[in-house]
Design a protein that fits this description.
The protein has helices at 24-43, 53-80, 97-106, 123-146, 157-162, 168-178, 184-203. The protein has 206 residues and is mainly α.
Amino acid sequence: MRTQHAAGTRTSTPAPARTSGAPALDALRRRTRAAHEGLDAALSGPGGSIVDTAGYVRLLTTLSTLHAHTDEPLHGWAARSGWVSDHLDLAVLPRRRDLYASDLARLGASPRPTTVRATPCDDGRALGLLYVVAGSTKGARMVLRGLPDDLAPDARAGLSDAAAPGAARLWQGCRSVLTTPLPEELVARAADEAERLFTLLREGVH
């Protein structure tokens, strides 16, 4: 089973005004560093690796929650925002919630119930979500390689999809968007959203 990607007709919306400020990517990294490191520490086992089924279930549950919060909002935003296609190949926007749910089911577990905001995703919120999900996709290959060979070999559909060669284009596109000078107010809202999501994911790790 492979990722289902963005489709449909886009309606063009104006691109955010460009500024000469620092790249948004740097601002998001600084703002979210503590929350991001806290999440990584909560998910990592001894030596920073995932070594058992319990740890792997925690990871899959977190990734399932991440994609429940990002899949549809990002697809809806991409369909409305014609400007983002100048930077990002919309075909690589993922829908992995169901893949991670399937992996959890194979291990006798279920995704955590999730309530997603129903309001349309604007540029600020979307850029924060994109930063988190693109970073997660970027790290998937390393996580997959670090798993013991005998740890849930039949429950890796989500990570395998995220680690596929074409998935690297998602981070490349994210970098292109976030290294374009953007209004400070927009960058601040993106950082708020990314930090909020990292914190929510960390609080869900048990």
